[in-house]
Amino acid sequence: MGNQIWILTPEEAYKKYGDMVYRLAFSRVQNKMDAEDITQEVFMKYIRYKGQFANEEHIKAWLLKVALNSSKSLFSSAWRRHYASLEEALSSGVQMEEKSEVYYTVMQLPEKYRVVIQLYYYQELSVAEISKIIGKKETTIRSQLKRARAKLQEMLKEGRYEF
Amino acid sequence: MNFKDEYQKVNQHIVPDETFQKQMLSKMRQMETVDKEMVTETNKWYQQPSFVAICFLILVMMVGGIMLWGGIEDANQQTAKTDPFDVNVGNMTTESVLKNSEDATTKEKGGIFSPKMWYKEDATAEEIYQSFYQRLSDMDGLDTVYESKDNDTFEESERMLEEDVLKLRNRLVSGRNSNKPYVGSSKVYYMVKCKDGVIIKFEIYDNQLLKFSDVSTIYEY
Fold it and tell me: How many Å apart are CA A5 and CA A23, to the nearest integer?
């Protein structure tokens, strides 16, 4: 805080990217309460951030990276005892259409695959951008995407979806 | 059916509760107002350090500096008498360190990340090593140390216990004193997370050489 010159004020940033951060957090923690905690933490960090953002794309990438890091901390924290099951999370926390087979299947993937699927197919980020955000090599991201697609094809009815 | 379209459609329904959204928006507005008030407050004359106070501080610092100069000179003379630093820091040549610094600076200027450098830009390989070693020695300043066989992945299960960190540090000390670098069985990667936000990755490889694998991966958020 202090003499911050906002490209996006906290309110504008939340209105624009709040759902994006929540969705990424939810895809990782699969739990409504934790996803909300992470969203809150990310935007509190945004308010306290002392650096300057170059543009909105910079803000977006920063928020995604902080959301991933915050959910990592949550995973490793000792007090995280109330892990809800996927069924519970989907039924209690998410108002979803009846046909949520795709989302449900993605949520059954291992955590590292869920994140790349979310960033690639929902956020429409390139492999290079994902690699910068996650902090892994592009080749690693490509191979994770490939494996995630293979698993999805195996789990979803074959030939029903084009990737 | 296209997977991407379907996935995007379903994602539109993943939204936080309305109550949560309202609370967040109200919090954001509140924080913004507080921020503006703080800016106005800091612009008031009594919040600004006066010219006289600054001059006085500079004077005190100059006098203090002159008084301390003698002590520092003595300390330098004593240091010069000790043996030269002789640890094998492998590929960490001054050139590579400077290149990495440039990479990091480039990212800072135009990229997504804001790297936090833990050594001066013009530091020598020896100074960088010493700075790194001091961080590893300061257990209170350390958050987590990971040891992994994979340069990319540092799992929670690979978190090192305090006694193992001490052992690692001791191995590096004996390398320095005896000029016989650490001899391990294979290539091992380490990631040191400090409480001040600095993250240092390094590796011990070829059974003997210590190398900072990628200085540009030092980020804070």
Answer: 27
> Is B62 part of the contact surface with chain A (CB cutoff 8 Å)?
no
Q: Which two tokens stand for residue B172?
A: 């590096």
**Which domains, and CATH codes, for chain A?**
1-93 (1.10.1740), 96-157 (1.10.10.10)
Indicate the helix (H) or strand (E) that contains A87: helix A86-93
Q: Would the CA dihedral through B123, B125, B126, B132 be positive or negative? A: positive
Assembly ipTM: 0.81
Measured between CA atoms, the residue of chain A closest to residue B113 is A62
Cβ-based burial of B48 (10 A; exposed 0-12, middle 13-18, buried ≥19): exposed
Determine the distance in angstroms separating the CA of B100 from the nearest CA of chain A, rounded to an integer.
Answer: 16
Alpha carbon A148 to its chain's center: 16
Cross-chain Cβ contact A121/B14 below 8 Å: no
Q: Do A102 and B6 touch (CB under 8 A)?
A: yes
Q: For every one of its 163 residues, what pLDDT tens digit does chain A have, with 9 covering 90 and above?
A: 445 677 888 999 999 999 999 999 998 888 888 899 999 999 999 988 888 888 888 999 999 999 998 887 776 554 554 444 455 455 544 555 445 788 889 988 998 899 999 999 999 999 999 999 998 999 999 999 999 999 998 888 766 788 8
* Residue B17, phi then psi, degrees to nearest 5: -55, 150
